Amino acid sequence: ELLLRQNKVKALGQLIRNDERFGLSRMSYLAFGTLKALSLWDPEELLLNGVGQIWTGIESLYSYYNKKGEIDSKVLIQTLHEHGVETQLSWIVGDDCQTRENIDADIDNLIGYAPCTTQVAILSATPGTALYRRLQKEGRVRPFAPEEACLLGNNIDSLHFTHEERLEIVASIHHKLYETYGPSLMRATKVFMNGYEHCLKSQNPYLRVHRLEYFRKKIQSHMTLIK
Protein backbone atom coordinates (compact mmCIF):
# COMPACT_ATOMS: atom_id res chain seq x y z
CA GLU A 1 0.00 0.00 0.00
CA LEU A 2 2.02 2.89 -1.38
CA LEU A 3 0.17 5.75 0.30
CA LEU A 4 1.13 4.50 3.77
CA ARG A 5 4.78 4.89 2.76
CA GLN A 6 4.74 8.65 2.92
CA ASN A 7 8.49 9.18 2.54
CA LYS A 8 8.50 7.13 -0.65
CA VAL A 9 5.53 9.04 -2.09
CA LYS A 10 7.22 12.35 -1.30
CA ALA A 11 10.53 11.23 -2.80
CA LEU A 12 8.75 10.13 -5.97
CA GLY A 13 6.87 13.43 -6.04
CA GLN A 14 10.12 15.38 -5.81
CA LEU A 15 11.54 13.45 -8.76
CA ILE A 16 8.44 14.22 -10.80
CA ARG A 17 8.40 17.94 -9.90
CA ASN A 18 12.09 18.30 -10.73
CA ASP A 19 11.88 16.50 -14.07
CA GLU A 20 12.62 19.16 -16.67
CA ARG A 21 11.26 17.26 -19.65
CA PHE A 22 7.87 16.16 -18.30
CA GLY A 23 7.31 17.15 -14.66
CA LEU A 24 3.88 17.72 -13.13
CA SER A 25 2.55 19.08 -16.41
CA ARG A 26 2.65 15.62 -18.01
CA MET A 27 3.45 12.94 -15.44
CA SER A 28 0.86 11.25 -13.25
CA TYR A 29 0.24 7.85 -11.72
CA LEU A 30 -2.47 5.73 -10.14
CA ALA A 31 -1.92 4.72 -6.52
CA PHE A 32 -3.72 2.11 -4.48
CA GLY A 33 -4.64 3.17 -0.97
CA THR A 34 -7.13 2.19 1.69
CA LEU A 35 -9.44 4.85 3.07
CA LYS A 36 -7.30 4.91 6.20
CA ALA A 37 -4.18 5.66 4.17
CA LEU A 38 -5.99 8.27 2.08
CA SER A 39 -7.15 10.09 5.21
CA LEU A 40 -3.49 10.78 6.09
CA TRP A 41 -3.05 13.03 3.04
CA ASP A 42 -4.20 16.49 2.14
CA PRO A 43 -5.48 16.24 -1.48
CA GLU A 44 -3.19 19.09 -2.50
CA GLU A 45 -0.21 17.03 -1.29
CA LEU A 46 -1.30 14.24 -3.61
CA LEU A 47 -1.41 16.68 -6.52
CA LEU A 48 2.06 17.98 -5.70
CA ASN A 49 3.43 14.44 -5.56
CA GLY A 50 2.03 13.46 -8.95
CA VAL A 51 -0.87 11.28 -7.85
CA GLY A 52 -3.57 11.53 -10.50
CA GLN A 53 -5.86 8.65 -9.64
CA ILE A 54 -6.71 6.69 -6.50
CA TRP A 55 -7.92 3.10 -6.43
CA THR A 56 -9.57 2.20 -3.13
CA GLY A 57 -12.08 -0.26 -1.76
CA ILE A 58 -15.52 0.65 -0.42
CA GLU A 59 -17.01 -1.70 2.15
CA SER A 60 -20.63 -2.76 2.17
CA LEU A 61 -22.83 -0.32 4.08
CA TYR A 62 -23.57 -3.18 6.47
CA SER A 63 -20.10 -4.62 6.98
CA TYR A 64 -18.29 -4.59 10.30
CA TYR A 65 -15.59 -2.30 8.94
CA ASN A 66 -18.06 0.30 7.73
CA LYS A 67 -19.90 0.33 11.05
CA LYS A 68 -16.77 1.44 12.91
CA GLY A 69 -17.32 4.90 11.46
CA GLU A 70 -13.74 6.10 11.81
CA ILE A 71 -13.64 7.91 8.45
CA ASP A 72 -16.31 9.80 6.52
CA SER A 73 -15.48 8.05 3.26
CA LYS A 74 -17.96 9.99 1.11
CA VAL A 75 -16.50 13.33 2.16
CA LEU A 76 -13.01 11.95 1.56
CA ILE A 77 -13.81 10.84 -2.00
CA GLN A 78 -15.71 14.05 -2.76
CA THR A 79 -12.74 16.13 -1.60
CA LEU A 80 -10.42 14.20 -3.92
CA HIS A 81 -12.75 14.91 -6.84
CA GLU A 82 -12.88 18.60 -5.95
CA HIS A 83 -9.09 18.77 -6.18
CA GLY A 84 -8.88 16.94 -9.49
CA VAL A 85 -7.92 13.45 -8.28
CA GLU A 86 -9.78 10.67 -10.09
CA THR A 87 -11.14 7.69 -8.17
CA GLN A 88 -11.64 4.06 -9.04
CA LEU A 89 -13.73 2.38 -6.36
CA SER A 90 -13.86 -1.35 -5.73
CA TRP A 91 -17.00 -2.92 -4.24
CA ILE A 92 -17.95 -6.54 -3.62
CA VAL A 93 -21.33 -8.26 -3.72
CA GLY A 94 -22.04 -11.57 -1.96
CA ASP A 95 -21.06 -10.82 1.64
CA ASP A 96 -23.24 -12.44 4.29
CA CYS A 97 -24.30 -9.02 5.58
CA GLN A 98 -25.95 -8.24 2.23
CA THR A 99 -29.55 -9.48 1.99
CA ARG A 100 -32.47 -9.13 -0.39
CA GLU A 101 -33.93 -6.57 1.99
CA ASN A 102 -30.91 -4.25 2.18
CA ILE A 103 -29.09 -4.71 -1.15
CA ASP A 104 -30.82 -1.76 -2.84
CA ALA A 105 -29.72 0.61 -0.07
CA ASP A 106 -26.21 -0.85 -0.27
CA ILE A 107 -26.09 -0.19 -4.02
CA ASP A 108 -27.43 3.35 -3.56
CA ASN A 109 -24.68 3.98 -1.03
CA LEU A 110 -22.03 3.03 -3.60
CA ILE A 111 -23.71 5.13 -6.30
CA GLY A 112 -23.59 8.10 -3.92
CA TYR A 113 -19.79 8.24 -4.16
CA ALA A 114 -20.03 9.24 -7.84
CA PRO A 115 -16.80 7.39 -8.75
CA CYS A 116 -15.05 8.03 -12.04
CA THR A 117 -14.74 4.28 -12.59
CA THR A 118 -15.66 1.18 -10.59
CA GLN A 119 -14.51 -2.38 -10.14
CA VAL A 120 -17.55 -4.34 -8.98
CA ALA A 121 -16.73 -7.94 -8.12
CA ILE A 122 -18.34 -11.04 -6.67
CA LEU A 123 -17.03 -12.22 -3.32
CA SER A 124 -14.41 -14.94 -3.71
CA ALA A 125 -12.72 -17.10 -1.10
CA THR A 126 -9.01 -17.71 -1.57
CA PRO A 127 -7.25 -20.68 0.11
CA GLY A 128 -5.24 -19.55 3.10
CA THR A 129 -7.62 -16.77 4.14
CA ALA A 130 -9.91 -16.67 7.17
CA LEU A 131 -12.91 -16.34 4.85
CA TYR A 132 -11.95 -19.53 3.02
CA ARG A 133 -11.52 -21.48 6.25
CA ARG A 134 -14.88 -20.33 7.61
CA LEU A 135 -16.83 -21.02 4.42
CA GLN A 136 -15.10 -24.37 3.97
CA LYS A 137 -16.32 -25.43 7.42
CA GLU A 138 -19.82 -24.31 6.44
CA GLY A 139 -19.66 -26.33 3.21
CA ARG A 140 -20.01 -23.24 1.04
CA VAL A 141 -16.78 -23.46 -0.99
CA ARG A 142 -17.45 -24.80 -4.47
CA PRO A 143 -15.13 -27.31 -6.21
CA PHE A 144 -12.17 -25.53 -7.82
CA ALA A 145 -12.68 -24.53 -11.45
CA PRO A 146 -10.00 -22.41 -13.21
CA GLU A 147 -12.59 -20.54 -15.29
CA GLU A 148 -14.18 -19.23 -12.09
CA ALA A 149 -10.95 -17.60 -10.87
CA CYS A 150 -11.98 -14.09 -11.91
CA LEU A 151 -13.79 -11.03 -10.58
CA LEU A 152 -17.17 -12.45 -11.62
CA GLY A 153 -16.39 -16.05 -10.73
CA ASN A 154 -18.60 -18.44 -8.79
CA ASN A 155 -16.42 -20.21 -6.22
CA ILE A 156 -18.58 -19.84 -3.09
CA ASP A 157 -22.27 -20.18 -2.30
CA SER A 158 -23.83 -16.94 -1.07
CA LEU A 159 -26.29 -17.01 1.82
CA HIS A 160 -28.84 -14.78 0.12
CA PHE A 161 -28.28 -14.70 -3.66
CA THR A 162 -27.82 -17.12 -6.51
CA HIS A 163 -24.82 -16.57 -8.78
CA GLU A 164 -27.10 -15.33 -11.54
CA GLU A 165 -28.56 -12.76 -9.16
CA ARG A 166 -25.10 -11.59 -8.16
CA LEU A 167 -24.21 -11.09 -11.83
CA GLU A 168 -27.41 -9.09 -12.31
CA ILE A 169 -26.49 -6.88 -9.35
CA VAL A 170 -23.06 -6.16 -10.88
CA ALA A 171 -24.64 -5.22 -14.23
CA SER A 172 -27.30 -3.08 -12.53
CA ILE A 173 -24.63 -1.04 -10.70
CA HIS A 174 -22.77 -0.15 -13.89
CA HIS A 175 -26.06 0.72 -15.57
CA LYS A 176 -27.20 2.89 -12.66
CA LEU A 177 -23.87 4.74 -12.52
CA TYR A 178 -24.21 5.50 -16.22
CA GLU A 179 -27.81 6.65 -15.90
CA THR A 180 -27.00 8.83 -12.87
CA TYR A 181 -23.70 10.46 -13.83
CA GLY A 182 -23.17 9.69 -17.50
CA PRO A 183 -20.28 7.70 -18.99
CA SER A 184 -17.01 7.39 -17.08
CA LEU A 185 -15.32 9.68 -19.60
CA MET A 186 -17.61 12.53 -18.57
CA ARG A 187 -17.14 11.81 -14.87
CA ALA A 188 -13.37 12.03 -15.33
CA THR A 189 -13.69 15.23 -17.37
CA LYS A 190 -15.66 16.86 -14.57
CA VAL A 191 -12.90 15.94 -12.09
CA PHE A 192 -10.24 17.36 -14.43
CA MET A 193 -12.19 20.61 -14.64
CA ASN A 194 -12.31 20.72 -10.85
CA GLY A 195 -8.54 20.25 -10.78
CA TYR A 196 -8.01 23.00 -13.34
CA GLU A 197 -10.11 25.42 -11.30
CA HIS A 198 -8.31 24.50 -8.07
CA CYS A 199 -4.84 24.94 -9.59
CA LEU A 200 -5.84 28.21 -11.24
CA LYS A 201 -6.51 29.63 -7.77
CA SER A 202 -3.51 28.05 -6.06
CA GLN A 203 -0.61 30.10 -4.69
CA ASN A 204 1.77 27.20 -5.23
CA PRO A 205 3.69 27.67 -8.51
CA TYR A 206 3.95 23.92 -9.11
CA LEU A 207 0.16 23.73 -9.13
CA ARG A 208 -0.65 27.12 -10.67
CA VAL A 209 1.70 26.54 -13.62
CA HIS A 210 2.64 22.89 -14.10
CA ARG A 211 -0.36 20.95 -12.77
CA LEU A 212 -2.68 23.47 -14.35
CA GLU A 213 -1.13 22.59 -17.69
CA TYR A 214 -1.64 18.89 -16.94
CA PHE A 215 -5.37 19.41 -16.40
CA ARG A 216 -5.64 21.65 -19.47
CA LYS A 217 -4.20 18.88 -21.63
CA LYS A 218 -6.47 16.24 -20.08
CA ILE A 219 -9.58 18.35 -20.68
CA GLN A 220 -8.45 19.16 -24.22
CA SER A 221 -7.93 15.47 -25.04
CA HIS A 222 -11.37 14.55 -23.70
CA MET A 223 -13.14 17.32 -25.61
CA THR A 224 -12.62 15.46 -28.88
CA LEU A 225 -14.66 12.53 -27.52
CA ILE A 226 -17.46 14.30 -25.66
CA LYS A 227 -19.82 14.71 -28.61
Q: What order do the strands of the largest sheet run in, or round the barrel if closed? A: 1-2-3-4
Rg over C-alpha atoms, rounded to the nearest angstrom? 20 Å
State the assembly state of the protein chains. Answer: single chain
Q: Strand share of the residues?
A: 5-15%
Structural class: alpha/beta
Distance between the termini: 38 Å
* pLDDT averaged over residues: 94
- Roughly how much helix do the residues carry, as a percent range? 40-55%
Number of strands: 4
Q: What summary fits the major beta sheet?
A: 4 strands, parallel
Summarize the helix and strand pattern as letters: HEHHEHHEHEHHHH
Q: Which consecutive residue ranges, at least 5 long each, have pLDDT under 50?
A: none
| Shape summary | elongated
What is the overall number of helices? Answer: 10
Structure description:
This protein is α/β, with parallel strands linked by helices and 227 residues long. Helices cover 50% and strands 11% of the residues. The protein has helices at 6-17, 35-38, 43-48, 64-67, 73-83, 103-111, 130-137, 163-181, 184-201, 205-226, and strands spanning 29-32, 51-57, 86-93, 117-122. A four-stranded parallel sheet has the order 1-2-3-4. It is elongated and about 60 Å long. It starts with 5 loop residues before the first helix and ends with a helix.
Question: Main traits of this protein?
Answer:
4-stranded parallel sheet; single chain; alpha/beta
The gist of it:
By secondary structure, the protein is α/β, with parallel strands linked by helices. The protein is 50% helix and 11% strand.
